Amino acid sequence: MRRKEKNKKWKVLAAWGLLVFLTGCAGGGLSSKTRQEPGSSTTKEERFSKTDFVMDTVLQMTIYGRTDYSDEIKEKLSAAETEELSWRQADSEVFLLNQRCSEGETVEMTEAFSGWAEASLSLAQKSGGAFDPTIGNLTRLWDVEGENPTVPDKSEIQAVMESVGYEAINIEGEQPQGGRRRISMKDGVTLDLGAVGKGIGCDIAGEILGGKRDVQGAVIAVGGSILTYGSKPGGEPWSVAIRDPEGAEGEYVGVIKLEGNAFVSTSGDYEKFFVEDGKKYHHIMDPSTGYPSESDVSSVTVVCVPGKTKGKYPGLLSDGLSTACFVLGTEKGKALLEEYGAEGVLIDKENNVTVTDGLAGSLELF
Length: 366
Prior knowledge:
This protein has 8 helices and 20 strands.
């Protein structure tokens, strides 16, 4: 691990959200298509760019290839949200699962959902609860993203904390004759995969692109989670910028250079917060206290590379690990990243940037 002092000579970049991917190509409007010049490394291929909205966040896609798959990606992500992940959707899998488990049932899960649930539960266990997929009720109580957020009464927090605890979830093995995985939960506890939803979206996008032989490369951003896929025209690395947690929107600490397929997610205390009685309250909750995390970090960026990161869902893991490491803080966060074979950039409140060894040669600080 390497620790560096932040260079405060910031460079301002056009960007969005927590992270920004820098494709090196200009695009305008919500959708654009540009044909490559004859003789270039991507002859007969095109650049397709589109901005949309899905999973309650901005979806930005840049695809290099012969066919535009942005609509297919948008449709699959929308379907995952409405059919499986949305706690607001009355007929979604997670909504019905929580309802039936609250009535004492043990419920069969679809293959996709059971995979996401198991990966989330495993991360909760390995992080000691720093990431917890049962925290949804607490997040909604605080409602940091609401129109008029306020600090809940201590009694309200204590009451909700009775329903927080990943240990209350039980996932059973397959039934005889190849049945589905089944889940049960303690009464009052609810499962919420919203904290890894953007990462799941990147996993889905990666699966779609992986089956397309006419795609050279792509960058897909689902809110604060990014997928880089394949190769960039000209052979240059993908560039992902990390926002300065102390700066204004559009000010960045540096850029990570990535080759090939990678999943990148950032959690920071600067994106969603409110101030009450002079104190700042951000949206990243500590499941052990019921209050926003007060670790030593202001921002955590996690990079998961398929084949190196341990787990079937590198997008989900990048999303969940960024949250877990934020709650754990620098030292414990580094240890968790190492356990998963993931890389990271952790920025603390004293303006120190800690970089894992695997990213040390890929991070350019401004």
